[in-house]
Each structure stands twice: as C-alpha cells, then as structure tokens.
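Quick one:
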Amino acid sequence: MNSRQRRGVILLLLSVLCALAAFAGVLSVIGDVNSKVGPEVTAYRVKSDVKPYEPLSDGQFEKVSMPERWLPDTAVTDLAQIEGKIAVTRLRAGSLLQADMIVKRPALQPGQQEIAIMIDAATGVAGKITPGATVNIYATFAGEKGGPPAQSKVIVSNARVIDVGELTPISAARSADRNSRATEAVPITFALSTLDTQRVAYAESFAEHVRLALVAPGGEPTIAPGDRTYTLDKDK
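Output:
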C-alpha cells in the first residue's frame, strides 16, 4: 500500500468516526429532549369557528397529540366532557379546547316551562344577555282615549334565560302590526312558571314593546308591587 492509499484509508476512517460521533450527538439530543418533554397525551382542537351559546358536538373538534407537560390543566382530554354543554364565547378555529370555554346548558326546574319570544336586538338585548342570565321583562302598553293612560309594566321579574337564538329579520307585516321600527330580533327562551309563561305570552301578543333588563348578580330579588307599573303622571 503506497502513501496515497494510506492517506485515503486514514481519511475514510476519520470520516466514519466523525459520522459516528455526529450520530451519537443526535441520539443524545433526542434523548435529552424526550426526557424533558415527556409522554404525549390526547387533546382536542376546534376545527372551525363555533358561535357563542351554540350546543357542542364531537364533529366540531379534532384530536391532536401534544406533550403532557405542555398541556394546560384546563384542556379537555375527553369529548364526553362537552355533552350537554354550550360555548360561552366564540371558539376560534385552531384553538385548543379548554374546560373554561364551555358551560352546562341551563335546564328546566320542576314546575317550569320553556317559552321563547322575539326581542328587538337593538333595545332589548344589545348582545349582553346570555344563557343563565337573570332578567326583568318589561312591557309597554298604549293608552286609550278616555281610558287608562299609556303604561310600562314589569311582567316578570327575575326570569331565567336558558337560550339565546340567532339574529333574525322581522317581516315587514309583523313590524307594522307591532308599530315597531325594529328590523331584526333575537329569539330568547325563558324558564318560567305557568303563570309567568301566560304573562309573557300576553305581553308578546298585545304589548307595544317587550324589553329585557339584565339583573346584576346580587341585585334585589323582587320588585315591590307599587313599583311594577309606571305611568307618566307618577313623575308629576
């Protein structure tokens, strides 16, 4: 073997040693990363935008895997957790599903009924009333010539909202019948006693306007009988 061949063999051996050293380094890095990252667990990601207060279903989410140590404590790891739940805010596509994004849909109590009425989106809802909220329901009635004056009444106090529907156009005929300029309304569903259900149905049919007033948490639980009806002459 001449000197040129010996140099070639030496260079080849050095190349093999360098390759082995690099491979060992890669394995060491991978092992170090695995030791720091730990095992992977299943989580769920939102596939497409989910509207607020919309009932949730399995098809709205996709399974993903991620390191356990990077998973938030509130992450949903089992889709059984969404059963009977609704979104409390808009869920954006690609977001990791977490327990604080969803709540249980309000349910009826014994002796209660569901009733849904259309509420003017601008004056009655303004985007602040959500399922689970407590509201007072006001109705205004037109006065009659030579008869009772125009008045505003608290039809139901502390009504519990169990669902908020989608913004819906009001037909021109209905708007004219109700003497209203509203062009859009939102169906609001309440859980009420039989008597309160009748009151709301009456107001929805015969009142000039029906409006909702959001009750602050910890507010007065009842309205005094003398404060339930208002007429302008009370301010004179």
